Amino acid sequence: MESMGKKRSRPRRVFTAEFKAEIVELCQRGDRTVGQVAKDFDLTETAVRAWVKQAELDTGTRSDGLSRDEKAELARLRQENRRLREDVDILKRATAFFAKETR
């Protein structure tokens, strides 16, 4: 009675890049739909669609998102930006401290 209407969540699984590439290749061949491939390999259709989309972004056949390289660069730039903001904040505090000391 406790599980009526509630679907158990499946444990999070990790897949290798090679496995994802094989699944994407099967989907892109065109002989099976994304749904069929997902069902055959016990995957969620959403995950398979995301893998196909990312592969298309990486190869340049799709342009409505960021490729893996662009995502990595964006993450690096955000980290650098955060570090630089912290540096500026420290310098502002030091300037205020020394300005107060010299008066």
UniProtKB/TrEMBL annotation:
Coiled coil: 67-94
Keyword Coiled coil: yes
Keywords: Coiled coil
Any one GO BP annotation for this protein: DNA transposition
GO molecular function ontology, one term from the record: DNA binding
PANTHER family in UniProt: PROTEIN DISTAL ANTENNA
Protein name: Transposase
Species for this entry: Virgisporangium ochraceum
